[in-house]
Amino acid sequence: MKRQLPPGQFETEKWPILHTGDVPEFNEITWNFRLFGEVKQERSLSYKEIMELPKTISTVNMHCVTTWSKFDTTFEGIALRELMKLVEMNEGVKYIKIFGYYNRERFGYSANLPLEPLLGDDSLFVYRWKDKNHDWHDIDLKHGYPLRFIPPEEFYLWKGTKWVSGIKFMKADEAGFWEERGYSMTANPYKEERYR
Ligand SMILES: Nc1nc2c(c(=O)[nH]1)N[C@H]1C(S)=C(S)[C@@H](COP(=O)(O)O)O[C@H]1N2
Ligand SMILES: [Mo]
C-alpha cells in the first residue's frame, strides 16, 4: 500500500478521535441500519443481519482535514457493495449519503460521496481493526462502534461517518453535515480539497 503524505498533512502513529456531539450508546435491540432514497424498496437491517453479511479485510490510509494522516490501519468490515446487493437501485443513482448519529439524532450527521469510487475493498463499514502497534480488537465506542464507515484514501476522513444509521441513494449530489458548513463536496486530500 502506498505511503504518500498528501500536501499539508503530517503523519501520526496514534489514531486521534475527532467528532462533534456526544458519543451515542449502542443498544442492539433498537439499533438498525436503513437503506433508502432512490431504491425500489427501502430496507432496514438489524445488527444481527448486518453482522451476518460477507466480511472484507482491507488495509487503508486515513487523512483527516485537521492535518493528521495515519497509514496502514487494517480493518474488518462489510463492503458497501455487499449492502448494495440488498436493494434494487433506481436507474441513474450516482451518489450516496452516509448517515450517522449526532447526539441523540440518528440521522443528524451525514457525508456525501460519489458511488463509483466506492465499489472496492477500501470502502468498508468497519467494526474491528489492527495496526503494527495493536492486535485485532473492536473499534472503540469513540471511533464509531458498533459500525462506522471508512472511505478510500481519496477522501478526507470526515466522509467516514461514525455510528452509522443508514445510506441514502441519490441521483444528484447533496451536501452532508460538513459540506453544508463550507467543506468540500469532493474532498480529495491529494488535491487538498478542504473547503469549497
Ligand atoms: N457521526 C459522526 N461521524 C463522524 C464525525 C462526527 O462528528 N459524527 N466526524 C468526522 C470527522 S470530521 C472525522 S476526522 C472522523 C474522525 O474519525 P476518528 O475519530 O475515528 O479518527 O470521523 C468523522 N465521522
Ligand atoms: Mo475531521
Automatic annotation (TrEMBL):
Listed Gene3D superfamilies: Oxidoreductase, molybdopterin-binding domain
SUPFAM superfamilies associated with the record: Oxidoreductase molybdopterin-binding domain
Domain (Oxidoreductase molybdopterin-binding): residue spans on this chain: 21-178
Protein origin, superkingdom: Bacteria
UniProt-listed PANTHER family: OXIDOREDUCTASE MOLYBDOPTERIN-BINDING DOMAIN-CONTAINING PROTEIN, PROTEIN-METHIONINE-SULFOXIDE REDUCTASE
Protein name: Sulfite oxidase-like oxidoreductase
